[in-house]
């Protein structure tokens, strides 16, 4: 009798657990343009856009790593946000939100990193997408503002006014 009562309880507990998310599960990046058009980008779609790669250290990782992905500017161009919005809002899986003035986005930095050292990033390792600057390239990328904008577990990019 005890065994019968335990099985339904165990089933309910296990059913309530969230499924693990990773870059391999296809968690898309949701981009909302100024006209409220939503475009979903999976890893393959992001890989089809122009790519940038650089080696840099971060305050969140040990040593140097190679980050590769699509420049944020290229994504904004592709979705019509560039030239139509003054700011862009980025949202993480945990609902952390930041805004970046579009005028402060360089053609090649920051990037929406899709890989670190050639490997897709699971959620547990700041993936599947991470906004990364080439911190070691220029001191302007090593400020509190830039660090606060370096959002990981990125799930949304939204046009903002």
TrEMBL record:
Pfam families: Oxidored_molyb
InterPro entries recorded: OxRdtase_Mopterin-bd_dom, OxRdtase_Mopterin-bd_sf
Signal peptide start-end: 1-23
This protein's record includes keyword Amino-acid biosynthesis: no
Alphabetical keyword list: Signal
Residue span, Oxidoreductase molybdopterin-binding domain: 55-134
Protein name: Oxidoreductase molybdopterin-binding domain-containing protein
Organism annotation: Limimaricola variabilis
């Amino acid at each position: 009798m005890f065994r019968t009562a335990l099985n339904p309880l165990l089933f309910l507990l296990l059913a309530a657990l969230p499924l693990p998310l990773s870059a391999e599960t296809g968690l898309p990046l949701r981009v909302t343009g100024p006209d409220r058009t939503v475009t979903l980008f999976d890893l393959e779609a992001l890989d089809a856009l122009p790519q940038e790669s650089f080696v840099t250290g971060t305050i969140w990782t040990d040593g140097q790593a190679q980050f590769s992905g699509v420049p944020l500017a290229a994504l904004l161009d592709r979705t019509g946000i560039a030239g139509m919005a003054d700011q862009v809002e980025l949202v993480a899986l945990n609902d952390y939100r930041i805004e970046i003035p579009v005028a402060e986005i360089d053609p090649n930095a920051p990037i929406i990193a899709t890989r670190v050292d050639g490997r897709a990033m699971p959620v547990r390792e700041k993936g599947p997408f991470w906004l990364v600057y080439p911190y070691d390239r220029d001191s302007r990328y090593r400020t509190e503002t830039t660090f606060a904008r370096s959002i990981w577990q990125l799930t949304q990019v939204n046009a903002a006014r």
